[in-house]
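Board notes, transcribed. Complex of a protein with pyridoxal-5'-phosphate.
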Amino acid sequence: MIDMPAFAAPFAQPAGSPIRELFPYLSQPGMISLAGGYPSPSLFDAEGLAHAAARAMTGDAQTLQYGATEGLPILRTALAALMRERGIQSGAEQVMVTTGSQQAFDLLVRVLIEPGDTVLVEVPAYPATLQALRLAQAHIVPVPMDEHGLQADALAALLRQLPAKQRPKLLYTVPNFSNPRGTLLAAERREALVQLACTHGFWVVEDDPYGELQFDTADAPDGSTPPMPPTLRTIGDRLADGGVNPVVYLSSLSKTVAPALRVGWMLADSSLLRRCAVAKQTVDLCTSPLAQMVAARYLESGRYPATVQRARIEYQRRMQALVQGIASSLNGCVHCAPPAGGMFVWATFAQSIAPQALFDAAVAQQVLYVPGKAFYPDSAPHHTMRLSFAAPDVPQIEQAVQRLAAAVTELLH
Ligand SMILES: Cc1ncc(COP(=O)(O)O)c(C=O)c1O
């Protein structure tokens, strides 16, 4: 039989998403998963979404028709209003609806990156970003993070060292409650980062699916949430001073409303937006107008703020259960700091514990997490793990910690 043609180079030996490859374990009976960044099913506003869906279906025929690639005007307008609440001045024409914010990043990569191009990525990084960049055969240059997010001074040093032919095209960061570290990028670093982008001329992708999931802090004077630092996009508007804002802002309804809607969006300079729209034409023509109309009607219904507020309260409770459980049951072996929002706790474990052995022991104990190596561009062993507290409830989280403790104890003895 004749050989079939070769696969395109990036797909010759493709590595799938390290998180999606954990799926088979999820179906094992009794498994408690701290792995995926899944919102809690108990927080889905099914009633509100049912109303929104009914309204969407009784509207005009555009709900069941192909729509403009950039998105339905009604949703773009609603998202522009949401952006203004986040301090971002935007008109509907600057917002492009995407099929999840994941697609927005993929479109940017298609539009900007050629094999060998340099891309700066905060590390540890969201794995799908690394995957998209690997498939595009980008030259990934890691930028280190600490507990205050991406290290702007390390970035400045790196930019000084990079040879001219490795001038970066873009930088990727999740400034608000990052995935996986849970960090909030400090205000002065935000300013420095955008300043560097303006000086050196590279795009900054500000991926923000978690910014609204901020926790209350007991140490705030009135016990409320402290104000969020400004978005990079807002800083970019100011520093660009009428020129091109280098910041591309991405966000999503996945973490606050429902991932099944697959509604994300991108806010960017018109030159970039136009090219992303052309790229999207061949990917899916348009994001499902039905899903877009449900999202638009949901935002219009006024239920969104209360839904987000419920999520903030519940996720904070779950985060505290996880962090306190780790401190009391895994004291000395596993360390983590409480995040100020989002869905993830980033934990570090003793060097004496082999990462793969711990993962295997945890699976045997019926608890799942994402091993740290999924978040790095290299293949070195990493004594870290990402634990998501969003989907399991507090009793499940407590049980998961006990199981993790049993796995660690087994390895240490
Ligand atoms: C940082 C980050 N960006 C993007 C996404 C994808 O979100 P969406 O469902 O909008 O595609 C996720 C999902 O986990 C994420 O954590």
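The pocket of pyridoxal-5'-phosphate is lined by residues 37, 100-102, 126, 174, 179, 207, 209, 252, 254, 259, 264 (CB under 6 Å). The mean pLDDT is 94.
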